[in-house]
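Subject: Protein record for review, amino acid sequence with backbone structure tokens
Why sent: The fold of this protein is of interest and is recorded here as tokens.
Enclosed: The protein record, placed directly beneath this head.
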Amino acid sequence: MLTVGVDLAAEPVNTAVAWLDWASGRCSVRRLVIGADDALIVDALSTAGKAGIDCPLGWPVPFVEFVMAHQAGHVNVPADTTGRAWRRNLALRLTDQQVYERTGLTPLSVSADRIGHATMRCAAILARLAREGRPVDRCGRGAVVEVYPAASLKLWGLPHRGYKRPQHLADLGRLVDELQAAAPWLDLGPHEAACRRHHDALDAVIAALTARAASQGLVATPAKDQMDTATAEGWIALPTTPLEDLRP
């Protein structure tokens, strides 16, 4: 099986894609590209058994409704909701709030932070996939699932903070060391150096590992009463078992 991880940024220069080959009792990084354009990403998603994208797949439903109401001149603020709580529901999706409840981590707001630029690009990529006959189920039930590498790392007991700061390159190297110790069956091969130098590359690998967990049913999925919202907003796949359970 081939899993793909995409660390999606607004521009190709900071976008990384990793291909993981699960065969012969090992997991090998077959290919890793930093500086991935839309065409490469679409091709990767189209050929993967399961792919994980580190980017929101949608916007909060209350935010979309708010923008539409504002455009029409009919914004109504709920009388029983304080300003901060109301804005929180506009800024964070249901899945973002679920991630916080489980991990203590708050994903960036797709409606109130710069990650919205990456999500615009992601929406265009998903639309292109749909036109090519591969529509994406934002709940993760199809070939593509939304992932959050920091949350996956934390749930797997690995360092999840600080490694993205340019001045903390040593932290990135230590994370690679701990990942290899926790998953000796993971072969980074000639791409190890890139993972030690570029956090985008490592996040793409973590995204592909999380995609593997999703393919094996080892992630949290929306409850029945959450499904409609998750289908519109996207749903972050959080691992439910140790990293060792992904051993081929």
